[in-house]
Amino acid sequence: MKYWLLKTEPNAYSIQDLANEKKKTTCWDGVRNYQARNFMRDEMKIGDRVLIYHSNANPPAVVGTASIVKEAYPDHTAWDPKDKHYDPKSSEENPRWIMVDIKLEQIFAAEIPLPTLREMKPLAEMELLRKGSRLSVQPVRKKEFDAIVKKASGKL
């Protein structure tokens, strides 16, 4: 099992939106970074655990967890000229972008804001906290995932 952090802007799609989905499940579409795509395509597997991170929020924060319920498949939004994620270089015959499906596990009772994450010793090497780190899909070490979930439960 692997662990991941997925960033989303809450004004575009929030964890509450995920909670309101049928079966609390959605496709994670619109990823348009090659490294993030490669993580999703090559490494994400059913059962992997996910931290949901609200970026472009005040303050940015980890807000809950989800799990991967469907592995990589073509992101059809890239083929729709009316979609904001349209990519004319992607096609059904030669899909450039992919997506995975995630299912909500839990919404934290209290979000864990970025300043708090920066103060947590087990997260000292976390990709999210590296200067200049902007990937919307990034790996997380098990100890980092566990520390965040433990903090959310009020035990850290």
Label the structural class: alpha+beta
What portion of residues belong to β-strands?
Answer: 25-35%
**SSE order, as H and E?**
EHEHEEEHEH
| Radius of gyration from CA coordinates | 15 Å
Distance between the termini: 23 Å
Mean pLDDT: 95
Number of strands: 6
Strand order of the largest sheet: 2-5-4-3-1-6
CATH superfamily: ph1033 like domains
Number of self-contained structural domains: 1
- Describe the biggest sheet? 6 strands, mixed
Structure description:
- With 156 residues, the protein is an alpha+beta fold.
- It has helices at residues 15-20, 34-43, 114-119, 142-152; strands at 3-8, 25-28, 49-54, 61-74, 98-113, 137-140.
- The longest helix is centred in the last third of the chain and has 11 residues, at 142-152.
- The radius of gyration is 15 Å and the shape is globular.
- The mean pLDDT is 95.
Helix-strand blueprint:
Layout lengths: L2 E6 L6 H6 L4 E4 L5 H10 L5 E6 L6 E14 L23 E16 H6 L17 E4 L1 H11 L4
Parallel strand pairs: 1-3
Antiparallel strand pairs: 1-6, 2-5, 3-4, 4-5
Core attributes:
alpha+beta, globular, ph1033 like fold, 156 residues
Give a short overview.
By secondary structure, the chain is an alpha+beta fold. The chain has four helices and six strands.
